[in-house]
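testing teh design pipeline on a random one, pls ignore if ur not involved
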């Protein structure tokens, strides 16, 4: 099976994928920058507030990550409807977007609030527990606007309307940073609210983003070219609610993928803990760098899946296969640049995160060795997005069960307690797990490409 070189129409396809990738990358990066800024600002208030942000924020963003994963197929299904010129299906997806995001938001809110009662049971200091509970109570108000906007974003991406999303990201990021500073630390006679202020900043920013998105839908009518003017009955139609329940049921394995991956990232530092704090910090830095690589993979993968879904909807199987290969090409080029930087400057990255750390050389060695994990972890995320365009959902759950729970965690335990071949062996388990998971996904993609070509 020959690789199709990016010439003529393929250059146009690469451009379209890059155009879709840009707003996604900007959105994910703006969220990361705002979160890091929040950590820095809340850290100035006190260690208890910072710890409450880490605890409460960790719970909130893990719940949101699972919820957003369940909504991620909206853009794929919308793009298929556009490709097939099926306006009735597109109308249905608008209703599905509203109802699915509403149902998921309701469950996500209940799960988040449930942790308010669990925190005191975790033997946490009373003051820290109170701050964490207050943070969760306030930030839970952001779940509905966040997920409603995510649904709108996926619908717009499905019709490849990206200009508005890019502009909105440029506005929402500085607004979030400004509100975080003002509400956390205060200014002049206006008092700051500490970690609760940081949560309130997220709520206000998310409501602002949602209102602007609704205005765009009503004023600019991005679906007008499909003879759809978004009357209210599209959203409340009974058929849309039934379709939403079917949509969620079909995509339940995606929630399992997010939960399992999140569980591995939480358990590995605990397994490594007996080796000392330095190793835990090192693994945490590798995971942080990996999350940056994942942002790139996730953005490229979602953009690619939209283009692949469009081709499949238009019954253009060979072009869908070409879009798949070009998605990999774009990822490999950009990821190679990123990983080369990590490999050449591991100690500098560590010093940037932990200035003056005495164990920077060991930490840097682990980070350099972690490139294998970072690469395969990010490429499997790319493959997950691509397979969603082909309606291959269950294989994603099996890949993480086999790769992470059957290989990564047991191997990490063995290397920590019974193997001593240097600090790099700490990452051997999760590296092997990510490789196995990638191989499982790659076998299915190769099968799809052979069938579609």
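output:
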């Amino acid at each position: 099976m020959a690789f199709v070189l990016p010439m003529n129409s393929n250059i146009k396809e690469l451009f379209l994928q890059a155009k879709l990738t840009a707003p996604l990358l900007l959105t994910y990066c703006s969220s990361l920058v705002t979160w890091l800024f929040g950590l820095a600002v809340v850290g100035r208030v006190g260690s208890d507030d910072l710890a409450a942000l880490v605890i409460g924020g960790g719970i909130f963003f893990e719940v949101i990550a699972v919820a957003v994963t369940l909504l991620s197929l909206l853009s794929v299904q919308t793009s298929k409807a556009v490709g097939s010129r099926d306006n009735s299906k597109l109308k249905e997806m608008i209703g599905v977007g509203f109802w699915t995001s509403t149902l998921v938001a309701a469950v996500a809110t209940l799960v988040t609030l449930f942790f308010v009662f669990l925190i005191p049971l975790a033997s946490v200091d009373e003051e820290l527990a109170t701050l964490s509970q207050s943070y969760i109570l306030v930030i839970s108000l952001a779940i509905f606007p966040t997920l409603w906007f995510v649904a709108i974003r996926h619908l717009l991406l499905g019709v490849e309307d990206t200009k508005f999303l890019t502009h909105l990201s440029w506005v929402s990021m500085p607004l979030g940073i400004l509100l975080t500073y003002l509400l956390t630390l205060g200014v002049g006679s206006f008092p700051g609210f500490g970690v609760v202020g940081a949560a309130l900043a997220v709520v206000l920013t998310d409501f602002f983003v949602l209102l602007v998105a609704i205005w765009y839908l009503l004023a600019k009518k991005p679906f007008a070219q499909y003879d759809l003017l978004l009357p209210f009955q599209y959203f409340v139609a009974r058929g849309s609610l039934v379709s939403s329940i079917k949509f969620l049921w079909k995509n339940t394995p995606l929630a399992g993928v997010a939960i399992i991956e999140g569980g591995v990232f939480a358990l590995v530092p605990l397994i490594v803990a007996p080796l000392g704090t330095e190793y835990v910090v090192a693994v945490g830095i590798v995971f942080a760098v990996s999350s940056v690589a994942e942002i790139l993979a996730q953005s490229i993968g979602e953009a690619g899946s939209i283009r692949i879904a469009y081709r499949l909807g238009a019954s253009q199987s060979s072009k869908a296969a070409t879009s798949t290969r070009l998605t990999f090409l774009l990822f490999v080029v950009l990821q190679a640049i990123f990983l080369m930087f990590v490999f050449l400057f591991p100690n500098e990255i560590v010093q940037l995160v932990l200035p003056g750390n005495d164990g920077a050389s060991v930490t840097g060695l682990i980070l350099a060795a972690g490139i294998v994990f970072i690469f395969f972890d990010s490429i499997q995320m790319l493959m997950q997005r691509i397979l969603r365009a082909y309606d291959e959902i269950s294989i994603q759950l099996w890949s993480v069960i086999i790769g992470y729970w059957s290989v990564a965690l047991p191997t990490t335990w063995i290397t920590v307690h019974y193997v001593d071949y240097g600090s790099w062996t700490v990452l051997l388990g999760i590296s092997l797990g990510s490789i196995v998971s990638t191989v499982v996904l790659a076998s299915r993609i190769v099968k799809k490409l052979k069938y579609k070509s």
